[in-house]
C-alpha cells in the first residue's frame, strides 16, 4: 500500500511512523486541498502519474474533491491505467448548497465519473445524485459510516441533569465553528447557565478563540483542543450540537446517538437528516439559522424531561 499526500498539511492525526510500521510506503506530493492552487496541483498530478507507473500501482483510491480530481486524472493519464475508486465524503453540491458549488463541483464530478470504476458515497442523497452520472464501465455504491467498537463499549447512561453542551470537529470553515460562536452568543442573551465544550483543532482555532473573547463568552464556550479519547467525552453532557455548513455522514452524530445524547443540527440534508429523526431523537434546525438554534438549545436546557425523552 502506497500513500501519497501533502504531509506538510496534515488532515488526520496519524503519525508518519505509525504508517511506516504498518508497511505503508509514503510519498510526499505538492497536492493542495484548494483546487485553485493550480501550479502546485499540476506538480502533484505529474508526481502521481510517475508514482503510479514507477511503483506499478494497480488500484488508486482517492479521497476529498481535489484528491478525487487529481487521483482519477493521474490514473487515466498513466501507462498503467489502474482500477479507480473514489470515496465522496459528502459532495459539495447538495440541496441548498451555494450556486457556485453547483457551477464548479457538479460538472467536474459528472465528467470524472467516466474515469471511475467505483464511486463510494456515504449517504443516500449523494448516492441518488451520483447514480445519474454516466459511467463507461463503473458504478456507484453506498457504504455508510460506522461506529468504532470502543465508542459502543464506552457508552454510559444518559445524564439528564447536565447543562453541558458538546461539539467536536475540525476548526475549518465547512465545520461551521463561526456559526457555533453566533449560536452561543444568541444563547447567552437568554441564559448564561451553560457550558459548551468544543473539541478539535485546525486553521481557524485562534480566530474562533478571539471571537469567543470578543463576544465575552470565555466562561461559557471552552475550547478543549484535540483528544485521542473522544469515546469518553460524550459522557456527562446534555446534548450534542452540530453547526456544520456541510457534512457527508458525520461520525460524531452517530457516536453521540450511540451515547444516547439528544442531537441538535442544522438541516443540511445529506448527513444529519439521515441520522436525526426530527422531534424523536433530536432537532433539525433550518440551515444556518443561529437564532433558531439558540432558541431550541435554550428550551432543551430548561426541560430535562424533554431531553430524557429524546435520549430514550
Polypeptide structure, described:
The chain has helices at residues 16-21, 38-54, 65-77, 99-112, 124-130, 149-154, 177-188, 205-214, 251-258, 272-275, 290-302, 304-311; strands spanning 2-5, 25-28, 59-63, 83-88, 118-121, 139-142, 164-168, 195-199, 221-225, 239-242, 263-266, 282-285. The protein is an alpha/beta fold. Helix 2 packs across helix 3 and helix 7 (177-188) crosses helix 11 (290-302).
Q: Kindly state the mean pLDDT as a whole number?
A: 92
Number of strands: 12
Largest sheet: 6 strands, parallel
- Encode the helix/strand succession as letters: EHEHEHEHEHEHEHEHEEHEHEHH
Query: What is the helix fraction of residues, given as a range?
Result: 25-40%
> How many separate helices?
12
**Form type:** elongated
Terminus-to-terminus distance: 44 Å
Low-confidence residue ranges: none
Task: Give the secondary structure arrangement, pairings included.
Blueprint: E1 2-5, H1 16-21, E2 25-28, H2 38-54, E3 59-63, H3 65-77, E4 83-88, H4 99-112, E5 118-121, H5 124-130, E6 139-142, H6 149-154, E7 164-168, H7 177-188, E8 195-199, H8 205-214, E9 221-225, E10 239-242, H9 251-258, E11 263-266, H10 272-275, E12 282-285, H11 290-302, H12 304-311
Parallel strand pairs: 1-2, 3-4, 4-5, 5-6, 7-8, 7-10, 8-9, 10-11, 11-12
Helix pairs in contact: 2-3, 3-4, 7-11
Name its key features.
elongated, 312 residues, six-stranded parallel sheet
Give the gist of this structure.
With 312 residues, the chain is α/β, with parallel strands linked by helices. Helices cover 38% and strands 17% of the residues.
Amino acid at each position: 500500500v502506497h500513500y501519497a499526500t501533502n504531509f506538510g498539511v496534515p488532515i488526520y492525526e496519524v503519525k508518519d511512523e505509525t504508517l511506516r510500521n504498518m508497511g505503508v510506503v509514503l510519498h510526499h506530493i505538492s497536492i493542495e486541498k484548494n483546487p485553485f492552487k493550480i501550479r502546485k496541483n499540476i506538480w502533484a498530478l505529474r508526481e502521481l502519474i510517475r508514482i503510479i507507473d514507477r511503483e506499478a500501482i494497480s488500484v488508486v483510491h482517492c479521497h476529498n474533491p481535489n484528491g478525487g480530481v487529481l487521483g482519477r486524472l493521474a490514473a487515466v493519464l498513466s501507462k498503467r491505467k489502474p482500477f479507480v475508486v473514489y470515496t465522496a465524503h459528502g459532495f459539495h453540491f447538495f440541496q441548498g448548497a451555494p450556486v457556485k458549488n453547483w457551477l464548479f463541483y457538479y460538472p467536474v464530478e459528472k465528467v470524472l465519473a467516466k474515469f471511475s470504476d467505483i464511486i463510494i458515497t456515504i449517504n443516500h442523497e449523494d448516492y441518488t445524485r451520483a447514480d445519474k452520472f454516466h459511467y463507461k464501465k463503473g458504478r456507484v455504491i453506498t457504504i455508510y459510516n460506522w461506529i468504532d467498537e470502543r465508542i459502543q463499549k464506552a457508552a454510559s447512561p444518559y445524564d439528564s441533569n447536565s447543562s453541558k453542551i458538546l461539539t467536536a470537529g475540525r476548526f475549518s470553515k465547512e465545520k461551521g465553528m463561526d456559526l457555533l460562536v453566533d449560536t452561543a452568543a444568541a444563547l447567552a442573551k437568554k441564559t448564561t447557565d451553560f457550558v459548551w465544550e468544543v473539541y478539535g483543532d485546525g486553521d481557524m482555532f485562534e480566530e474562533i478563540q478571539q471571537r469567543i473573547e470578543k463576544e465575552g463568552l470565555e466562561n461559557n464556550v471552552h475550547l478543549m483542543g484535540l483528544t485521542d479519547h473522544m469515546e469518553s467525552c460524550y459522557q456527562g453532557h446534555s446534548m450534542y450540537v452540530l453547526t456544520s455548513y456541510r457534512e457527508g455522514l458525520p461520525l460524531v452524530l452517530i457516536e453521540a446517538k450511540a451515547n444516547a445524547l439528544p442531537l441538535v443540527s442544522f438541516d443540511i440534508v445529506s448527513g444529519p437528516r439521515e441520522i436525526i429523526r426530527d422531534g424523536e431523537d433530536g432537532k433539525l434546525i433550518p440551515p444556518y439559522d443561529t437564532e433558531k438554534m439558540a432558541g431550541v438549545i435554550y428550551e432543551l436546557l430548561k426541560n430535562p424531561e424533554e431531553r430524557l425523552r429524546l435520549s430514550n
